[in-house]
Design goal:
single chain, 406 residues, alpha+beta, six-stranded antiparallel sheet, 11 helices, 32% helix, globular
Length: 406
Amino acid sequence: MDALSTSQPVPSAESQLRATPPHALVATARRLLADRVGAERVTLFLADYGLSVLQPVTDLPHTGDPVPAHEGPVGRAFLSQAPVVEVTDDPTPTHCVHLPMTVRGDRLGILSVRLPRDMTDAATVLQLGDFATALAHEVTTADRDTDLYLQARRTRRLTLAAEMQWQLLPGRGCARQEYVIGAHLEPAYSVGGDNFDWSTGADHLTLSVTDGMGQGIDASLLTSLTVGALRNARRAGIGLADQACLADQALFAQYRGKMYSSTLLLRFDLDSGTVHAVDAGSPLLYRQRGDTIEQIELEAQLPLGMLEETLYEEQTFTVEPGDRLVVVSTGMHGARDAEGGSFGDRALRQTLSATRRESPHEAARAMVSGVIEHFGSKRLPADAAVVCLDWYGRTSGTARRTPPAR
């Protein structure tokens, strides 16, 4: 960060953040920005689990009053994933620069830096963006060693089942030149059995969405075993169908068919756009190509763990640059209200169409919000997971709507 350094050979801002104890990252960020760019105030906002508010971390583990995640200058920076400069005159003329904190496509929050107006040039804003990204990486790493930032993200207590599920997740987004993933999970503070997972390699992406049977702790334990078994098989380097077979055996050995998981497994070839799929249950898959929405109907196979030694087979389909894939769990496509009415395929397609121009992150969140609005309730009758993937592939010259991952 050249613009944030002095003429004397001093440690870089990134190296000083790395050397900071996990609980002291915010204090170090304030000191560094005050010393190097004259920052008058530095505030770290973290997105809560429901993605409804951004919580200012003031005196860890406590937080100040939250601000909306989709309104105002802070919310605009979070939605657009671009710096927003706010002009203020209280008590003196200053600029407040709101900077996205994002790690490889996973949106953590916003870093707000108040500067004297004469310090807010384009080069400084650019370097502040790099600083915010470096801080985001350190906050992510710090979560391994401290609970402080995890505590600061929550507006209320998580249930034990939800705590277990959130610890399983790889994040809520992932971005590479070939694709961008956005995902959302509700009810965020009490989810039990729904989960999503992904792993990226040099030439492929593996993605799964799991809906564990039951509710609460029982569902969470089942899903934890499912995801762990799938990861263990995947990391052994075996094919997609065999991954499903091994996970199926692990679940049946534990539950003897009394509990099982509905899972959709996808493996993308980054060069060709060929997708290998195993449909082991109820998550539905939709493809949006241009203005066309179609459900990709895969051969329905038994959920994982339902019967002993089930054999699974792969199917293939293709994606093209510009395609959007959306996976929805049963809590989305099978949700029913108190009168027994369902959300339905038609309403789901309307929601998909209405969110087509949104980023994958916002589309996934808006889809779940659409179901909640449909039922006129603040929470869903069942867990709901949505994974939205925009495919760009490796075709040269493909235009992107989303900036590269940081």
